[in-house]
Design brief:
about 200 residues, Tscrpt_reg_LuxR_C, transcription regulation, transcription, Response regulator transcription factor, Sig_transdc_resp-reg_receiver
């Protein structure tokens, strides 16, 4: 059974995430805090398997909460939630120790599936880098990955690159396989960690 701690200063976000998490099989307890100080105190006092931290553009509280928690508790499994076009906050949170991220605009089925996968493995796995595995992404695959990091849909990426949506999906599947990841969130988190996207 898994325990989850949600940190965000917006009550509506905390309540929304609690509703979604309650639909994920295996979740035993869901607690919420509003600020980084509360997060550190609660994490220190009780066993927590996964921490969900909300981020906002130009508001450093979520990123700072992630950094402080991971600095004090390196074993903490932190997943950040952010706007799809807020690559700055997402990159900063990943650099601060978050294991991965999910987009705010992910559909409910996508969100539940991603959270279920994260909880099943307790953390988002850190994929091998292309240099570690001897695999290099093609320029087209890098372009698709960068589009994902900017929160663009497959259709939007295709229009910018003059490719069909099916072709973009093919490139996405190939880069997922090369990087050893399962979905867009893990691929983008990997890209931020390794400097493939910014």
């Amino acid at each position: 059974m898994t325990t989850v701690l949600i940190c965000d200063d917006r009550r509506s976000v905390r309540e929304g995430l609690t509703r979604v998490m309650s639909a994920v099989p295996g979740v035993h307890r869901i607690d919420c805090v509003a600020h980084g100080d509360e997060l550190l105190t609660r994490f220190s006092r009780q066993s927590v398997d996964v921490v969900l931290v909300g981020t906002q553009r130009a508001v450093p509280t979520g990123v700072e909460a992630t950094r402080r928690l991971v600095a004090a508790h390196p074993q903490a499994n932190v997943i950040v939630f952010g706007a799809p076009d807020d690559s700055g906050s997402i990159a900063a949170a990943i650099a601060g120790g978050a294991r991965g991220y999910l987009r705010w605009d992910a559909s409910r089925p996508e969100l539940v599936a991603a959270l279920a996968h994260t909880l099943a493995s307790t953390s988002v796995p850190a994929p091998r880098t292309p240099s570690d595995s001897g695999v290099q992404l093609t320029e087209r695959e890098l372009q698709v990955l960068r589009g994902m990091a900017q929160g663009k849909s497959n259709g939007q990426i295709g229009r910018e690159l003059y490719l069909s949506e099916d072709t973009v999906k093919t490139h996405a599947r190939r880069l997922f396989r090369k990087l050893g990841v399962r979905d867009r969130a893990q691929a983008v988190a990997h890209g931020f960690r390794r400097g493939l996207v910014s």
